[in-house]
Every structure is written in C-alpha cells, then in structure tokens.
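Lecture notes, unit on binding sites. The following record was shown on slide 14. It pairs a sequence with coenzyme A.
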Amino acid sequence: MGYREVYDAWKSDREGFWMEAAQAIDWVKAPSKALFEKGGNLFEWFADGTCNTCWNAVDRHVEGGRADQAAIIYDSPITGRKETITYAELKDRVASLAGALKAKGINKGDRVVIYMPMVPQAVEAMLACGRIGAIHSVVFGGFAANELAVRIDDAKPKAIIAASCGLEPGRVVKYKPLLDGAIDIAKHKPDFTLILQREEEVAELTEGRDFDWVEAVAAAEPADCVPVEGNHPSYILYTSGTTGQPKGVIRHTAGQLVALNWTMKNVYNVDPGEVFWAASDVGWVVGHSYIAYAPLIHGNTTIVFEGKPVGTPDAGTFWRVISEHKVRSFFTAPTAFRAVKREDPKGEFVKKYDLSGLRVVYLAGERADPDTIVWAQEQLNVPVIDHWWQTETGWAIAANPVGIELLPVKLGSPSVPMPGYDVQVLDEGGNPVAPGELGAIAVKLPLPPGTLPTLWNAPERFQKSYLSTFPGYYETGDAGMIDEDGYLYIMARTDDVINVAGHRLSTGGMEEVLASHPDVAECAVIGVTDQLKGQLPVGFLCLNAGCDRPHDEVVAEVVKLVREKIGPVAAFKLAVVVDRLPKTRSGKILRGTMVSIADGTEWKMPATIDDPAILDEIKDALKTIGYAD
Ligand code: COA
Ligand code: AMP
C-alpha cells in the first residue's frame, strides 16, 4: 500500500487502524477498543487495556532475543567517553534503579522530576519511572533554577533525580546549586533527591534529603514492571505557552506505545535491530519520543549523544557518529545543520567518513529552510525529510512517510498529514480555506493516540488554549497552507511563542522577567530572524519616568536577569531602550509590525495604530543593534 491507501484506510476505519497497530505492543490486558470519548471534546486511547512502558521498551526485547543487542550507545565527544549498553544490561540497570525509587517510597502515580544532561542514566531514569508507574517530568538542563521551581510546584514530585553537572563547551554547568536553588524557591518540597555524581563535578549532598545514585542502586532489590491502565500518564513535559507559566503536556502510556512504535517503520523506515539517532536532548519532546521511547519500544539501538554539532571537536562530529555506529536514520534540527554548514560549507568533513549506511535524514523542531535542505541533500546524498510536530502531539502531524512510500520532496513543506491527523486550514470563522490560501492550521478531533489528552493541573487552560477557537478542532498555534497536492506549509506561529535554535520559548515569559526589573515601566519581546538559530529574542524597554541610568547598564542587567530566571537556553542577549512602544488604539502592542521592521520585510501601516511616528523610533533603536537595515 502507498501513502494514499494507508491514509484512506485510517480514515475509513479509525478504530480498526489503531487496534491493528496496537497488536505490535505487549499488553497485560488487551484493550476492548481504541477510542474512548470522555465528553467535552476529550478523548483517550486504549483506556481499558493494561500494559507497561518499560516492559515494552526493555524486558520484552530481552525475552524476545535481543538481550545482547545494543539498546543504548552513549557517545560523548565532550568528555571522550563511549559506552554500549545491551538490552539485558539496560534491564538490570533500570530494574535496580526502579527498585531504589520504590524502596524510597515512589509508587504508581507519584511524580518524579528528572534534571539530567545527555547521559544514558537520563533515559534509565525515565524508564525506571515507567517500570513502577511513576510519572516523570524531565526538565531541560539549560533552564535556570526558577524555571525548575515552577515545574516542581506544578508537578509536585515526590523525588527529583539529577546529575551533579552537565557539560557545555568550555564550562561545567553545576546542576546541584541550581537544584538546591529551585527547591528553596519552590513551595512544594520533594521527599528526596537522587544524585548521579559525575567525574567533572562532585556535588555536596544534604544528609537525609540527597542520596547518591550508585549507593542507592547498589542497595536496591530490582523492581518488576507494574501494569498500568492505558490512560495512565507516562509523563508530563512542560512546554512554552504565551505566559511564563509553562503548559504541562500529559502523555498517556498506551497511546504513546502504539503510536511511537508505528512511526519507527512507517515514518523513519527502520527495522528492529537497526541504529536510529535523534540528535536532540531528553529535555525536549524529540528526546522523549525519539531518543528514549520510540527506538527502544521498536527494538532499535538509540544513541545518547553528549555534544554539539560543531566544536565537539569539529563540524564532522555528526558524520563520525553516523559512520562509527552505523546509523540508518538520523534526526536533527535545521539549526544544527546550519551550524555545521557555516563551518564546513563545502562538506570537507563529510568526505572523511563512510556514510554509506545512512538512508534518510529527518529535520524538525522549526521551519526547515530550503537552503539548508538542499545543502544537506547535496552533502549526504540521501533524502532529507522535513516533518512537522509539537510537544503536544509527541509525533509527526505531517511527514514524508518513507517506510510506506517516499513521496516527492517539496522544499519548504513537511509533506503530508500522517494517518490519525485530519489537518485543515481554517479562516477566522473556522471555515476551511481553499488550497493555497493561508489560515490557521487545525486538526479535526479526535487527535490520534500518543497526543496530549489534556494539560496537567489545567483542564480549563487545555480547553482555552487548544479547543475553544475552532469548535471540534485542535488549534495547533501554527499558521500555513495546504497546496493542491495536499502538502502542508508551516509559515508562522499565531501566538507569542518563538523558536530559537529549535527550542520553543515564550516571549510572554521573557516579558514577565523584564517587567520585574525595577527600572522597567513597560516592555515587549519579539523574535527576529536569525541566520543560525532561526529566531532570536529582542527586548524593548521603556524605563520609569525619572530613571536616568545609562541605558547599557539597564540592558546588561535585564540580559543577566533573563539568564538567571529562565536560563541560558533563552539566548536573550539583545535589548534596546525606547521611549514608547507602538500600540493599537486599544492598547495592544504591535509586535508583528516590529518583527517586520527588524527583519526588513514588507509591512503595512496597521490601520488601528495609535501613533505611527513611534515606528520610526523603533526602527532607529533596532539599527543600533544591527537590525532593521
Ligand atoms: N545545559 C546548560 N546550558 C545549555 C544547555 C544545557 N543542556 N543547552 C544549551 N545551553 C546553553 C548554551 O551553552 C548557550 O549558552 P551561552 O549563552 O553561554 O553560549 C545557551 O544555552 C544557548 O544555547 P543554544 O541556543 O543551543 O546555542 P549554542 O550556541 O550553544 O549552540 C547550536 C548552537 C545550533 C549548535 C545548538 O543550538 C544546537 O545544536 N541546536 C540543535 C537544536 C536541537 O537539538 N533542538 C532540539 C529540538 S529537535
Ligand atoms: P516544540 O513543541 O518545541 O516541538 O515546538 C513545536 C513548534 O515548532 C511547532 O508548533 C512549530 O511552530 C515549530 N515546528 C516544529 N517542526 C516544524 C517544522 N518541520 N516546520 C515548521 N515549524 C516547525
């Protein structure tokens, strides 16, 4: 069957399609049906089945003949370390860690926050939670103590698992002071922490609260897999919305197992036993789905890569890893390729490695610009596939389903909707627009298995953010179009979310931090176009009347403040002081117009603008930092 037949088969029998996909999963009790309607436009999948994530990702492969196959290859150019962990070893390690958690009182449904760098123990911690039915919430290492605290207060974890440090080129990021700071700030206090001490930094442990990972695991009885209901949350992953309060995306156990397993062959075209590599971080959804879960559920080998596309040690790192570990399908963010291309435009490093085993490259996380795709196609001589998805969906909404059929690649398009997603482009009134016309991209409910059923602690926010604008649809927050051939084009976000180096960030969250500076009366943050990172945040500050401090001092302070409050990942380094912000007569800041001025793209004077002269001031201010030329 080709793509069209598979998509139509899903459309004509959705239950049958997902029940068949569910057969590839081991159930303790098989579900009686796939879709469960909960009312209020809420849906769940396989809710009356019981199963276990860790069993499906680890134990069943040990029993099924993959005991000696590599499950995880850890490759850390930043430390020079490499390690291969077989499925049998992974089972022992995870069972012991799960036992340690259990011995300290972690049970089914308890939350565990994981704050770890890219080491295999991060994946083991996720699997150990799944083994005993605990719900993990991984926090990206580039977030500061305050962001960690916000997540601790929302998820209310009984335990936090962390490493003593992460490693960024040229610096050791000490996690323990950040963790201690976060626990101090948070109202909710965890019962205990489990700390993985790394050679580069030995953290001080607080007696009675902090426990050493190795000691705890050595003393533990291995724990068995605990069966959980299909709709039991596997994890909560916080992602940026329009405010500083992140959204806790929930992933249910069974839907995740079924959907991710389906994607490994159909989208990523790998068979069990082959090596799959997603060069992301476990702190992001790509890391959850395609470093930790999908490859293991499907019996592949996954790579935990602790390094950067460039500088660890050079722009050939990706190619070295692909050739050394025989990677078949490789997944990264366009920004990573732009970084490599900038250092090695002619692909001198590519020529040094045997990449004959590589079959396909996948890009996601941000718009894949045609230049980058063409460069990668020319260098690597394999199809380069853009695909589009979100933390909320957990897997591709649109892709080129290479395992079913390699469709013609259209530059600038992540190709076509995957089975499970009825994607439509709607006008403001919620009516589908004609092919080629721009609109809001929405998905007709229900969303498929593996997508978010609701938000943690925030069911009303779930309704308001995703379901209220277009009744009967999930609002993706992206705008774009569908062409005559059914290919999607993702053009822009419709909210205040920006995408910096493939990382999703909230300009609203940054504005909250800027506004907390004592000299700032009013502010705005916009995302301007950046050749490397896609977008970069730029702040505009109006100072309090009477504040005569040098502007560069205030700018330096707010830059420091964002780094302290949100973290280095915000990449907030540019801000300017202006007298006023451009607004509509009703007081709405004209951020979109400011972005166009900064990027030097065409724009129209908004009809509702209060005082057009302010735009000249904005332009002059942007010129002082190298924009708006
Ligand atoms: N822990 C602590 N700090 C981190 C971090 C982590 N896990 N990840 C990033 N940071 C820091 C960086 O060190 C940098 O700090 P600096 O301001 O002191 O330089 C800052 O956060 C910004 O990081 P980033 O935007 O990633 O830029 P970079 O200059 O370090 O690297 C790229 C640029 C393009 C090489 C890098 O962004 C990259 O590899 N991106 C791939 C994107 C990706 O994997 N996205 C996941 C979704 S698929
Ligand atoms: P995240 O939740 O961090 O994965 O970010 C999801 C958002 O990133 C999407 O809503 C898009 O705005 C953007 N995005 C992800 N993949 C793509 C893509 N292939 N093309 C365009 N935008 C993308």
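Take-home: The two ends are 52 Å apart (CA to CA).
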